[in-house]
Amino acid sequence: MRQRKKLFLPRVMVAGGLPSAKTDAEPPWIQCPADIVAETDERRGTANVSWNVPNATDNSKEEVVVQVKPVYSPPQLFPIGKETITYIATDRSGNQANCSFTVTVIDTEPPVIDRCRSPPTVQATDGEAAVVWEVPQFSDNSGISVAEATKARLSRGGGRTWMSAIPMNGACLGGLGLPALPPWVQQDR
């Protein structure tokens, strides 16, 4: 007949006399990259941004789950503006730690003049004339409109009025003028 050996395991007792397992109350450790400032890619309203995904560690030496909000993974396209990215580390005991950094995309590219036509010649029969000309056409990688319709009211007398639509680093300029009336034409004032 075989004889069985008895094995005794020690118990950890806590106040109140109940057995307990050791609990982890310390949150994991996680560190995010520094804030990132990026310029838009050429002729685009976005920037392709990369960063090192943070690793998390825990005092228990066990695996730590890392989530990111919003859900991004590098490299990532970001539009012009600012976005905060937060990484959340959770250990097996449910303790959490988080870190955040911002990605700021700036537009340093000037708009482009696509079309800038000279204003038309105007022959006025009255003492003044309303003049409207084609709006200069610009484009910008940001998608923001950079020019508005241009118009003027000119009076006879050889005056010169300028139209202008000036984006950040470019300009579309043109001059308009009505010639002075010949001396033999009587003007009503």
From TrEMBL:
Residue span(s) of domain HYR: 23-107
Organism placement in taxonomy: Eukaryota, Metazoa, Chordata, Craniata, Vertebrata
Record carries keyword Nucleotide-binding: no
InterPro entries (alphabetical): HYR_dom, Ig-like_fold
UniProt cross-references to PANTHER family, sorted A to Z: FI04643P-RELATED, HYALIN
Record's keyword terms, sorted: Repeat
Presence of the UniProt keyword Repeat in the record: yes
Name of the molecule in the record: Sushi, von Willebrand factor type A, EGF and pentraxin domain-containing protein 1
